[in-house]
Design brief:
Layout: E1 3-14, H1 53-65, E2 69-70, E3 73-74, E4 76-80, E5 90-94, E6 100-109, E7 112-125, E8 129-133, E9 136-140, E10 147-153, H2 160-176, E11 189-199, E12 209-214, H3 217-237, H4 240-243, E13 247-252, E14 257-263, E15 273-274, E16 281-282, H5 296-307, H6 311-317, H7 321-332, H8 337-354, H9 366-377, H10 383-395, H11 401-408, H12 416-429, H13 431-438, H14 445-455, H15 462-474
Parallel strand pairs: 12-13
Antiparallel strand pairs: 1-10, 1-11, 2-6, 3-16, 4-5, 4-15, 6-7, 7-10, 8-9, 11-12, 13-14
Helix pairs in contact: 2-3, 5-6, 7-9, 9-10, 10-11, 12-14, 12-15, 14-15
């Protein structure tokens, strides 16, 4: 039997406001436990929430970026549940009328574009954090009250590849908008995945399982693929009704498996009701005309048109705003766009990835990378020499490019008269091989090139060597 996978994603994006959503406590990460707290985020009696204007502005920017309807008037509700990291016993969230509704996002998988609907994006406050130690647990409430934008997709995704493409596009959009740092390791971009499987052709959805709080694209893909296989195996074994129940599961990154956490609540379980301490949210009119920066899709199209890049290369360079900016700085220094792409995407990123260094902390600046490329273009160094220069600059970033070239002794010999003299000397020493070449043994050409390069200690311009040799041997 053939099966169809149905995936919907809920993404919690931590907005990068300076203060929390309903109080003036800072949102800074990594502070001493329970330092960033006050009566409002601790849920003390009599404390009243006040809406953070910046959080509203960032939600509106996101809504406009995904072509969504932005509700000028939206309502906050109390979502009741009882966990140690939720001091009030309820979370302030939006339920019936969210700030953003009916958006869309386009992904590309296997060369085909697909529209993914976004049901809603609503504002809410984050909970705190439970820390489990040996024999006991403690609660850190620094994160409690941090503004979140929860983005809920339609169940339009049909594979783990589509889910990852959607999440990467969403991740890029919130970064380009500068509404979140979207740091998955720090919990600024958390994913809950809803997945079900049904026999192909069946209209009704299968039993939906939620996989909670996954913090890397790699683990999301693994969790989805494990869960899809579990559902299909249950269908094949005839145990689907018993094995697959509506529940929340956790993913274990060490074993690559999901396990049951709890039964899945429905909205009625949360007993939503309008928050009596907050008036309905009225979006200021000026928020609807705020400028939207160039987004990933637009930038990718521009890179293809302006710099004549292939779709894949343009996609790589525009995946992160910092990388796109770095590339444009290299090109802006007067470098060929194709060479800039090659040296940035392959050479520099390869070195940074090996050391796990982000582009924002690259020891080699855009200006220095451009200078290396210029030295290749003007034949001062060879392509192989450029790689050695980049290695040197990674280790000693204080060096200027020409200093590194000098220290490594890589300056190419590009004087035709000097190279011609070397070529004549090599041909004179290898008269028998010259005769063999001229009698049809043309494979010896590589031998002559090698001898000239050896004589120049690798410093002769290879293009000139080939050109002069060809003239002398074939002329």
């Amino acid at each position: 039997m053939e099966y169809e996978v149905v995936i919907g994603l809920e993404v919690h994006v931590q907005l990068n406001t300076k203060t929390k959503i309903f109080c003036s406590c800072p949102t800074s990460f990594g502070e001493r436990e329970n330092l960033n707290t006050c009566p409002v985020c601790l849920g003390l009696p009599g404390a009243l929430p006040v809406m953070n204007r910046e959080a509203v502005k960032k939600a509106v920017l996101f809504g406009r970026a995904i072509n969504a309807k932005i509700n000028k008037r939206s309502i906050f509700a109390r979502k009741n549940y009882f966990y140690p990291d939720l001091p009030k016993g309820y979370q302030i969230s939006q339920f019936e009328i969210p700030i953003v509704e009916n958006g869309e996002l386009f992904i590309e998988v296997d060369g085909e574009e697909k529209r993914i609907g976004i049901t809603r994006a609503h504002l809410e406050e984050d909970a705190g954090k439970n820390i489990h130690r040996e024999g006991y647990s403690v609660v850190d409430l620094n994160r409690a009250g941090t503004p979140l934008l929860e983005i809920v997709s339609e169940p339009d995704l049909r594979s783990s590849d589509e889910a990852i493409a959607y999440l990467k596009k969403l991740h890029a959009i919130v970064r380009y908008l500068d509404i979140s740092d979207a740091n998955m390791q720090e919990g600024s971009f958390r994913v809950d995945a809803n997945v079900s499987v049904r026999p192909k052709g069946q209209k009704e959805f299968g039993t939906r399982v939620e996989i909670k709080n996954i913090n890397s694209f790699k683990f999301i893909k693994q969790a989805l693929e494990y869960e899809i296989e579990r559902h299909i195996d249950a269908y094949e074994d005839g145990t689907y009704q018993e094995e697959v129940v509506q529940e929340t599961r956790l993913f274990n990154s060490r074993t690559g498996e999901t396990r049951s956490m709890r039964g899945k609540e429905e909205s009625a379980d949360y007993r939503y009701f309008p928050d009596p301490d907050l008036l309905p949210l009225e979006v200021p009119e000026e928020f609807f005309s705020l400028p939207i920066p160039e987004l990933p899709d637009e930038k990718r199209r521009r890179f293809m048109e302006e710099y004549k890049l292939k779709p894949y290369d343009a996609g790589v360079l525009t995946a992160e705003p910092e990388l796109a900016q770095f590339y444009e700085e290299v090109v802006g220094a007067g470098v060929d766009p194709q060479m800039a792409n090659s040296y940035l995407s392959v050479e520099l990123l390869g070195r940074l990835n090996k050391k796990n260094i982000p582009i924002t902390e690259s020891p080699i600046s855009a200006q220095k990378l451009a200078q290396v490329i210029k030295r290749v273009a003007d034949k001062t160094i060879s392509g192989a020499g450029a790689k050695k220069v980049l290695d040197k600059l990674m280790e000693e970033p204080q060096l200027e490019v020409d200093e590194a070239i000098e220290k490594l002794g890589l300056k190419q010999i590009s004087d035709p008269a000097v190279i011609e003299e070397m070529v004549e000397e090599v041909l004179e020493k290898n008269g028998d091989k010259v005769e063999q070449y001229r009698n049809g043994k043309t494979k010896l050409f590589g031998y002559f090139v090698g001898q000239v390069m050896k004589a120049s200690r690798g410093k002769a311009n290879p293009q000139l060597v080939n050109q002069i040799l060809k003239t002398k041997l074939d002329g």
